[in-house]
Amino acid sequence: MGSQIGQTPISVEALKEVSYGYLEGESKKNCFVDGKEGMCGFACFSGEDFYTAQHRIIRAMQEIARKHPNQNILIVSHSQVIQLLLGLMDAGYRTMGSPCQLSVPNGSISILKVEENHFELMKSPDLSYRFTSSSC
User: Fold this and answer.
1) Are 124 and 102 within 8 A, CB to CB?
2) Can you give the pTM of this predicted structure?
3) Which residues, in sequence order, are CB contacts of 132 under 8 Å at separation 6+?
4) pLDDT tens per residue across span 8-49
5) What is the spatial distance between Cα 134 and Cα 31, in angstroms, rounded to a whole number?
6) For the chain, where are the E strands, in sequence order?
7) Where is 24: in which H helix or E strand?
8) What b-and-e string marks burial along 110-126, b requiring 16 or more CB atoms within 10 Å of the CB?
């Protein structure tokens, strides 16, 4: 993937998907009555709670920003990871304690700005690039 843009991908373990424990591979609608996980995330199922995952993700993002000051960085991850990160910046994306109002569609692009370890959401998850006439 990175070779198409002249870059070598770097895998960051801390930006991996949330651990679903023994529910890995199962559909949420088959595991939860309303199709949404509760406050514990997946810790109740030997997986990861959202609070722990969110802190893991933000620490990784801060480390990337520290290593690459004043640079544009492309980060590719899972929608749940992105949603947990965006939940720190916009209450609509929060998943802890209540159903999430906003979603992060697969393949969407979000733009964040970082200054002094503070992240700001500049562009919400967007899919409009997929619907341009040149992409058909």
Assistant:
1) yes
2) 0.80
3) none
4) 889 999 999 888 888 888 776 777 766 566 666 788 888 888
5) 40
6) 109-115, 118-126
7) none
8) bebebeeeebebeebbe
Is 97 a residue whose pLDDT tops 60? no
- Distance between CA atoms of 116 and 84, rounded to whole angstroms? 20
* 83 close to 91: Cβ distance less than 8 angstroms: no
Angle at 29 between CA 104 and CA 100, to 5 degrees: 35
Please state at what angle helix 79-86 crosses helix 50-67, rounded to 10 degrees.
80
**Which residues lie across from 113 on neighbouring strands?**
120
Q: Is 116 helix (H, G, I), strand (E, B) or coil?
A: coil
